[in-house]
Specification:
- With 83 residues, the chain is largely without helices or strands.
- 7% of the residues lie in helices and 7% in strands.
- The protein has one helix and two strands.
- The longest helix has 6 residues.
Length: 83
């Protein structure tokens, strides 16, 4: 069975910035449910809201929004650090 994508897994594999945070990153559920539309595990941190651990706000140090889409290894943001 393929591992479901979670924010924790994306950070560990270097797909997103290691400073990207979501409230649900800090707790686990026993039996995660999967959203049939997105394929993401519910309560996995994939749905946000997101913030940058460096600035403690919704924007990164470059002034751009912190999110799954904008904080990737291919984003070309100077502040983005991947594993």
């Amino acid at each position: 069975m393929e591992k479901q994508k979670t924010l924790r897994l994306l950070i560990q594999t270097g797909e997103v910035c290691k400073r990207l945070r979501a409230k649900t990153l800090f707790y686990e559920v026993d039996e995660p449910a999967v959203d049939p539309h997105s394929g993401y595990v519910l309560y996995s941190g994939m749905n946000g809201p997101f913030w940058c651990a460096m600035t403690q706000g919704i924007q990164g140090p470059d002034g751009k929004i912190a999110s799954i889409e904008h904080c990737t290894s291919s984003c070309r943001r100077g502040c983005c650090e991947t594993a």
